[in-house]
């Protein structure tokens, strides 16, 4: 909403303060500045507030607002006086305002940095978390305007408001003065306030998804009068799944006397239903969707699944139509799946919802599946069905204009019915948030991701995403740092998902291989080596092996303490007449189930070739023992990153033994030593490579879980050698009062000074525009020296002759200078410099950059061909911990060079890790540092030397992950 011409001309309407938020109950609301046009809305809002709430606000009976009050509360300068309103359906449900005050409590202007704040929430909307959301936003506005503290007077009986302030996590002081509670809040964000904000975000977004997946009633808008069509298909699927709630068919074209269709009540509009409707499935042409959304909003529908196409996937006109759809739905407090969605499925027996175009509700299981593509969703459902896998929930979000994979990660994190999250993503609308949520979820259950559109360089039609400058390999590395299992294809995603959902996590990479085919065993052995596992020599049971032989061999392998996982290979038996007998699959499956159920909890995978019925029989859970879920954690307990208030279930339901007794999983997600395994499905694969790849992903994920159980830290000794305030002051000076948005590079001396504030010493260089200056510089620095060109096309290019090393005297320096200029050009073009020689070592490169999509990224590699030609560079998100730094230098393929490859002396990797941590701290503390490149960094046996540094400063980019809660812009 824009202000009228009456609004103060000195301060433009701050439209960047507008935000959509999800409230505690899962509904949405809009927060925006109050303008002079809001007088009628304010009066109407105030009339609906109870006398008690008015008394709490004004400390006296205040039945109505005077004209003077209305003017005061609607006229703001957006600096010293600011008012925000929360709206639903265009009407106010809450307001907040602040007035800047001086030390005496009187109205003031800057530089006064304190403001008085007051809230008013309509009684019907109290308890929805409205005031908490408003406090986050008004605090962010105040900080932007130079206000550092809020003061509030609250009546002692107003417990709800006192709790809002107390629970916000800000540093605060309280006193009792003149019959009221005086509160002072320091608005500087704290670790506690950020944690509170994110916990509220989690609860609200998870609840918003739950309202969509577990509705008490569903209306299909656009159910056709005749069989066929999208709407009628969804209605049929809802009925076929046995939805436990109420179902309605809505179509404005129904005859007035038509009472039912397919056995459910038929209505021409939602208003005719006369009962609350929780979820609406919209299946009408795009041009009629706004009318349907308005009907839903006016009758209290909580969420929409929009199947209709014709939106952003159709170009500019469709994109604007999609934006308007989101604006309209959110204005009524509704969230949207879609548009252009395939639908949603919830297999919970309490719900049995199939509001999708999938004709069959998949079997119930422990896998949650999110996809941005309907076609991929169909393929995944079909593949999982063929392999006997079951789903807890399925979502195909289409253009994901509103609800995205991030929202479902919030939901799945604590969903007791989901053990594994599978996501097919074509874009990441909020990569920083995705990484944060994925890391938290992966600490308790696996997250498997396939990323489509990796190399196209553009987002799929309909997806609004921030541009990213980092290559896909970097995205993959950052996902793995967050514990995400990144695979390349949907087939690999299903393969990994089946193993993770049905089997316990392996304790290591030692793999036993057994089967009745020597050749298939050798293929499996080779595949294990290729994936970095440690296979034991295959056990050949020979082609004469019986199912009982398999059972005995598997039981023995599982009981072996030197084995972490088992791969069983099987080919058809050959009968006496020489023909293959493939009909004994069920018998073999029974034998394998029996051995697995009786043995310790270790993952088992089966590779088979044309054995009829084996895969199906293995996919069926045994009927003799009920699959049990781990018991809830006791209050106050926390394991492996789980919150103390919730106990998300570990993968595979591990913990149920043959006797049905519960076995507690280890903190890292494995079943613990000697624990009996869960008796469930055993995944079967048609190729050794697929089974081993899935197992290898499980091994790597389990290793990440073990490490995540004891998080890394930033060493305290860094604080003693870092001068953050000095760096901040220098950055402010270098950028100036009106910095160029494009930023500016620092020269050599400026970069050295800034890096020195963080304990990073760059070896000095002196310019050498002529041979005499080169000799003078060498005399100043001391021999031996290096002579280098700094021209951009020759920088760090020793292979082109632009670097001359170990010049031990004036004669050698003059000779090298002459050769350099004769070979490559005039000094003015080459820009030569002289630098003292560093101790011999391994040349490396350390970089940090701010990516608009992913955030701050720290990178490491060996200098030259390994990183530049072969792309052998490792990446971690900032801030990096000591474990991240150690992993970073060990993650590159050329890492052995640092650790004594071929008998060479190992270099000082400890010093290298410290340097990485210092660079990480610098870019994390000062977002104005948008890029750093230290090249080369020569790592010697003892210590290291930074020979070159380039730094670029720019105004800090917006950090949406640190501000108040808000939904993505449409």
Provide structural commentary.
The protein is of the alpha/beta class and 970 residues long. It has 27 helices and 41 strands. Strands 1-2-3-4-5-6-8-7 form an eight-stranded mixed β-sheet, with helices on both faces. It has a seven-stranded mixed β-sheet with strand order 11-12-10-9-13-14-15, with helices on both faces. Strands 17-16-19-18-20-21-22 form a seven-stranded mixed β-sheet, with helices on both faces. Helix 14 crosses helix 19. It is flat. The N terminus is likely disordered.
What is the strand and helix layout of this fold?
Blueprint lengths: L18 E4 L5 E6 L5 H9 L3 H8 L8 H8 L6 E8 L2 E11 L12 E8 L8 H15 L4 E6 L4 H8 L4 E7 L2 E7 L4 H23 L3 E5 L8 H12 L4 E5 L9 E2 L2 E4 L11 E4 L6 H10 L4 E4 L9 H16 L3 E3 L5 E4 L6 E4 L7 E8 L2 H13 L4 E6 L8 H10 L5 E6 L5 H12 L4 E5 L20 H10 L3 E3 L2 H13 L7 E6 L2 H13 L3 E2 L3 E2 L6 H13 L5 E6 L2 E2 L5 E2 L3 H14 L5 E5 L5 H6 L64 E2 L2 H21 L15 H12 L8 E2 L2 H9 L8 E3 L3 H11 L3 E5 L13 E5 L2 H15 L2 H4 L1 E5 L5 E10 L3 E8 L2 H4 L4 E5 L4 H10 L17 H17 L3 E11 L4 E3 L2 E5 L17
Helix pairs in contact: 6-11, 8-9, 11-12, 14-19, 15-19, 16-17, 22-23, 26-27
């Amino acid at each position: 909403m824009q202000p009228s011409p009456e609004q103060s001309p000195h301060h433009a309407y701050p439209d960047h303060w507008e935000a959509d938020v999800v409230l505690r109950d899962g509904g949405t609301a809009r927060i925006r500045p109050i303008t002079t046009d809001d007088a009628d809305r304010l009066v109407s809002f105030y009339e609906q507030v109870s006398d008690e709430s008015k008394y709490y606000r004004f400390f006296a009976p205040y039945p109505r607002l005077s004209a003077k009050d209305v003017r005061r509360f609607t006229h703001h300068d957006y600096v010293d006086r600011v008012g925000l309103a929360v709206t639903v359906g265009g009407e106010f449900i809450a307001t907040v305002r602040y007035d800047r005050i001086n030390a005496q409590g009187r109205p003031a202007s800057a530089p006064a940095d304190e403001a008085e704040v007051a809230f008013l929430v309509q009684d019907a909307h109290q308890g929805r978390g409205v005031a908490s959301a408003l406090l986050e936003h008004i605090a962010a506005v105040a900080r932007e305007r130079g206000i550092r503290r809020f003061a509030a007077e609250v009546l002692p009986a107003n417990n709800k408001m006192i709790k809002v302030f107390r629970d916000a996590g800000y540093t605060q002081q309280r006193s009792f003065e003149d019959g009221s509670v005086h509160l002072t809040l320091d608005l500087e964000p704290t670790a506690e306030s950020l944690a509170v904000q994110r916990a509220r975000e989690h609860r609200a977004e998870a609840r918003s998804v739950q309202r969509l997946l577990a509705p008490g009633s569903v209306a299909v808008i656009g159910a056709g009068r005749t069989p066929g069509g999208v709407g009628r298909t969804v209605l049929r699927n809802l009925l076929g799944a046995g939805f436990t709630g109420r179902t309605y068919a809505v179509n404005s074209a129904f005859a007035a006397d038509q009472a039912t269709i397919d056995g459910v009540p038929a209505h021409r509009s939602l208003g005719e239903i006369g009962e609350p409707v929780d979820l609406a499935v919209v299946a009408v042409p795009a041009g009629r969707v706004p009318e349907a959304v308005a009907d839903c909003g006016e009758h209290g529908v909580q969420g929409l699944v929009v199947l209709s196409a014709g939106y952003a996937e159709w170009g500019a006109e469709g994109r604007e139509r999609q934006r308007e759809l989101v604006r309209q739905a959110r204005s009524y407090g509704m969230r949207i799946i879609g548009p252009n969605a395939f639908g949603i499925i919830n297999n919970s027996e309490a719900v049995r919802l199939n509001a999708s175009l999938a004709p069959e509700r998949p079997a119930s299981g422990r896998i949650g599946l999110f996809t941005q593509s309907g076609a991929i969703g169909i393929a995944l459902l079909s593949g999982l069905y063929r392999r006997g896998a079951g789903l807890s929930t399925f979502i195909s979000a289409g253009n994901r204009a509103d609800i995205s994979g991030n929202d479902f990660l919030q939901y799945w994190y604590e969903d007791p019915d989901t053990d594994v999250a599978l996501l097919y993503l074509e874009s990441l609308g909020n990569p920083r948030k995705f990484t944060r949520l994925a890391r938290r979820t992966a600490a308790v259950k696996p997250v498997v991701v396939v990323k489509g559109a990796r190399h196209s360089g553009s987002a799929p039609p309909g997806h609004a995403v921030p541009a990213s400058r980092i290559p896909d390999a970097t995205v993959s590395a950052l996902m793995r740092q967050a514990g995400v299992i990144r695979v390349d294809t949907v087939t690999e995603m299903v393969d990994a998902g089946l193993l993770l959902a049905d089997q316990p996590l392996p304790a290591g990479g030692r793999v036993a291989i057994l089967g009745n085919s020597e050749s298939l065993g050798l293929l499996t052995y080779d595949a294990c080596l290729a994936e970095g596992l440690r296979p034991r020599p295959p056990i050949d049971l020979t082609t004469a092996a019986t199912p009982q032989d398999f059972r005995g061999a598997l039981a023995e392998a599982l009981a072996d303490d030197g084995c972490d996982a088992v791969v069983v290979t099987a080919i058809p038996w050959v009968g006496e007449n020489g023909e293959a007998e493939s009909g004994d699959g069920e018998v073999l499956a029974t034998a394998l189930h029996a051995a697995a159920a009786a043995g310790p909890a270790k993952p088992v995978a089966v590779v088979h070739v044309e054995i009829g019925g084996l895969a199906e029989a293995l996919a069926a859970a045994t009927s003799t023992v009920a699959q049990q879920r781990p018991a809830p954690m006791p209050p106050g307990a926390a394991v492996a990153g789980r919150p103390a208030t919730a106990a998300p279930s570990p993968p595979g339901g591990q913990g149920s033994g043959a006797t049905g007794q519960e076995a507690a999983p280890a903190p890292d997600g494995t079943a613990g030593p000697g624990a009996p395994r869960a008796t469930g499905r055993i995944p079967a694969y048609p190729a050794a490579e697929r089974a081993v790849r899935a197992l290898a992903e499980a091994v790597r994920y389990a290793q990440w879980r073990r490490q995540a159980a004891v998080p890394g830290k930033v060493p305290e000794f860094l604080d003693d050698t870092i001068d953050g305030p000095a760096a901040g002051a220098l950055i402010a000076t270098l950028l100036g009062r009106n910095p160029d948005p494009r930023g500016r590079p620092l020269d050599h001396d400026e970069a050295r000074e800034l890096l020195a504030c963080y304990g990073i010493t760059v070896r000095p260089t002196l310019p050498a525009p002529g041979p005499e200056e080169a000799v003078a510089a060498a005399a100043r620095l001391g021999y031996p020296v290096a002579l280098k060109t700094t021209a951009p096309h020759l920088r760090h290019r020793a292979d082109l002759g632009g670097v001359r090393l170990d010049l031990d005297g004036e004669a050698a320096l003059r000779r090298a200078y002459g050769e350099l200029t004769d070979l490559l050009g005039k000094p003015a073009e080459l820009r030569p410099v002289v630098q003292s020689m560093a101790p011999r070592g391994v040349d490396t490169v350390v970089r940090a950059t701010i990516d608009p999509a992913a955030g701050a990224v720290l990178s490491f590699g060996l200098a030259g061909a390994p990183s530049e030609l072969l792309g052998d560079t490792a990446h971690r998100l900032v801030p990096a911990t000591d474990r991240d730094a150690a992993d970073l230098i060990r993650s590159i393929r050329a890492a052995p060079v640092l650790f004594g490859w071929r008998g060479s002396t190992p270099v000082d990797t400890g010093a290298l890790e410290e340097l990485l941590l210092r660079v990480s701290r610098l870019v994390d503390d000062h977002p104005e540092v948008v890029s750093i490149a230290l090249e080369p960094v020569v790592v010697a046996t003892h210590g290291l030397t930074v020979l070159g540094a380039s730094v670029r400063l720019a105004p800090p980019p917006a950090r949406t992950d640190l501000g108040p809660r808000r939904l993505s812009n449409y």
